[in-house]
Specification:
mainly alpha, 2 helices, 0% strand
């Protein structure tokens, strides 16, 4: 194998590797887009969950306060 054949082989290998690197970069961008989308969806779900939990605990607290028969020290037991 001559020196020129080795150089051409090395250049061919570098060009092939460059194509693979560019393909991988495109795949990584797509994965990052998917992760960002999923992160946004999780944030929205967390928000809905927090609002629902806050609303349900707020309603229970208001009902207990309206009912004068409940001992404030035992209010936690009533929620269970």
């Amino acid at each position: 194998m001559s020196v020129s054949d080795r150089v051409l082989s090395a250049l061919t290998t570098v060009i092939r590797m460059n194509d693979k690197v560019e393909e991988m970069a495109g795949l990584m961008k797509e994965q990052q887009r998917r992760l960002d989308d999923l992160q946004g969806r999780v944030i929205r779900l967390e928000t809905v969950l927090e609002l629902a939990l806050h609303r349900s605990s707020g309603t229970s607290g208001r009902l207990l306060e309206a009912d004068g028969d409940v001992d404030p020290d035992r209010a936690d037991e009533c929620l269970r």
